[in-house]
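Exercise 7.
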Amino acid sequence: MNESKFAKLSILLALFLSIGIVVFYLTTSTQPIGQKYRPISELGGPFTLETKQGKLSLSDIEGKVGVLYFGFLSCTEACPASIGVVQAAYKQLTKEERNNVQFLFISVDPERDSLNDLYDFGEYYNNDLVALTGTQEEIDKVTSDYGVFFELADLEGSALDYTVDHSSRFYMIDKSGDLFTTMSHSTTPTELAARIKQLMNTNTTSS
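Solution. The predicted structure, written as tokens, is:
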């Protein structure tokens, strides 16, 4: 292989590696690129967002374990995979345990995700999933409070016009309504179910 071809191959490999690092960061990190690290103790907090049936506050699920996920309905990869993990984790819970956990799907794409569409989305999963959103200002605040990265990205030549790059994590809320920990996109259903069961037996927040 001559030096020119080797140089081009090296540049291409470096580019793919860089893209891989960025994708890994976005799906596992709890803070946007370039921002100072924020510990769990500085994340979380109360919020009130909208559903088709009216406002829903985090305090409305107090007494239950909460699993928060930030995504959007047009998401084709991370969101469906993460919801699948939640579904599989729920199958490892007893009926009583399932009655004491609530999955909240918060849309970061309020422009396209209407309350009607979010309601239909939630209905598909029965009472296991409640989908909600808010104004752009409200979404900006709750994502900032929880350290969620999201950014609109243009899709040239696509009917969707744009997609949303976003971090993909589960935000685990204890029965007191406090953020206990986050779990990565690669979390298995067994790991998620175990964490849910743990939180059902404790109200102690992490530091």
